[in-house]
Amino acid sequence: MGELAPRGVLRVGDRIRFDGRTKQIVGLEGTALRLVGEEGDVSVLAAGHVMAADDFELLDRGPEAVPAVTLPPFALMDALPEAVVEQARFWERHVVEVVTGLPPDAEEGTPARPEYDPAWRTLVEREAAKVAELAAAGQQISRRTFLRMRQRYEAEGLWGLVDGRSRKPPAPVPGTGRVDERVVAAVTEALAGQTDLSTGDRKRVIMRTQQILADRHGEQEVKLPKRATFYRLVNTLAKGNDPFGSATVRRQRALRPAGPFTPSMAARPGEIVQVDSTRLDVMAVLDDGVVARPELTIAVDVTTRTICAALLRPAGTKGVDAAVLLARMLVPEPMRPGWSQTLAMADSILPHERLVAVDKRLEHAAAKPVIVPDTIVIDHGKVFVSKTFSSACSLLGISLQLAPPRTPTDKAIVERTFTSINSLFCQYVAGYTGSDVTRRGSDPAAEAVWTLAQLQDLLDEWIICWQHRPHEGLRNPYMPGRTLSPNESYAIAVARAGYLPVALSAEDYIELLPVVWRAVNDYGVKVDYRTYDSPELNRLRRQPSGVTAKQDLWEVHYDPYDVSRVWIRRSDTRRWIEATWTHLPMVRAPFADFTWRHARQLLADQGQDDTSETAIARVLANLLHRSGKAPAGSEQVMARTRAALETTSRPELPPAPQADIDDTEAADEEMPVTPFGVFNPLEEEGRPLW
Asked: What is the pTM of this model?
């Protein structure tokens, strides 16, 4: 059977180079080579050592050796028409017979024909005999052409015998053919300039290309392709950039990294958490007759894809909202009335018993782990670079990592999670708006039926279901064929990391709230024209705090979504004192800071004194209790107030020691008022969940 030598074979007589020396193989002894140098020196070396040399090279073969096989590009061969491949196979049969004396399909033991026997005929004689044989069969070919075919076959294998018209070399830029490279560069530049422009047509790109060529090379200097070729060139170079489609998609694609980039990788829960905000694709009933898209802020753990926390707010998320989001990440999610027991942590794959041993509050928690972040990745949004949020992270020992501007790939996981929320949750909610106006229904606002608080409750329940849903991005290297849920991934990651997180305490939660420094006077503490007082402040009145850097003022923390009370830190015991607004009986409901500022603005618009605490309290009470259509300009304020009133409460502070209360100076009896309450994760609206 006529065949060529296997690729990579060393035989006696071959000349090789290694370690800067040229030697000839004169013998083979097992895996050792007997070599003779140019000066006649003889050595025996291991074949592996010789071939491992950096400069190892097979120079040429001995006179008795046959050429090595060159593997053709199989994928390219498969892409060729069948007739072209058959023609190449035809020529291969004749070339191999000339080189070896036998065709490739010759049976074992078949003798070579006399005119092709290498023992009796030279290579030139065999080539002449083959040309004559082909001419007699009606296949006219010159000896020079056959010589080139044989040389291409020895260099490229079967691919060298393919018709040149079918394997013409590709253009410098794929799909551009023989168009002048200067025209290709100008079209590419013109297409790149469409990114931030409104979408136009191809004619505009062609005119811009002509202008670039004229400015760079002069008029009539570069020959332009024909009109049809020009349009085909523009279409070819525009693939993947969408310059004539959606402007939004075009700008998003332009933000992708130009080259290979490393995705965010994390090995343990909380190592990297990504935080971002976006408008939710759902209309919510913010207040009576007020319908708008709320703003969603979420935190996603990179390791487990856990949605650590999600917060819905009317448009205009503030730094304190981001701090509240951080606080919600660090407290357990309680089971709520109406939730299925299958969503409880006790019925999930999470290490419930180990977690309860650390924190009893997790006994009746929902199946979402508490993840303490080490690093939070944020963008340059003013909410996340605010002093409130950065101070909260610094307090908890969390490092902040800023993503470069206009680089969504640095927060790809949280961006993709927004898409999942829209496709898996929002589209099933009444009032769904679609991702853009082209996907929007005729009147989604008329379909909206959920208030912001109800929508928040639905989203919280959906997030627990998300924790049980297998995620394509979560796979275990020991079970590559199975996708894991965020809870399964957390259970595996916790076992690998070897630690369990401790949930946030009530004191820590108050530490996350905004702070102001005020004096404790006879009437109490005044913040933004509101007076707060408590019997526990009796020992602090007119006394210096001892903090000289703050002019001996006292540290006061407040919740902007419930300014009906504040917390003052005692300098001796470091314990918090809760003080209530003195005019709260007039309002009889907790209220937010933006509601108070809006009430002051209403007074100022009427030409009245907006610093009068009593006058503001009357306006505020009227604003909170007014029924029917709200006054113009008040809708958004009332909506945000409603959202604050219905938001889940916070961890509850431990009771104050009785010794710290001066019973002789107790406050006057007031009408009973129920403020927001500090969050107890195991209670809902003041009632235990079990």
From this structure: 0.56
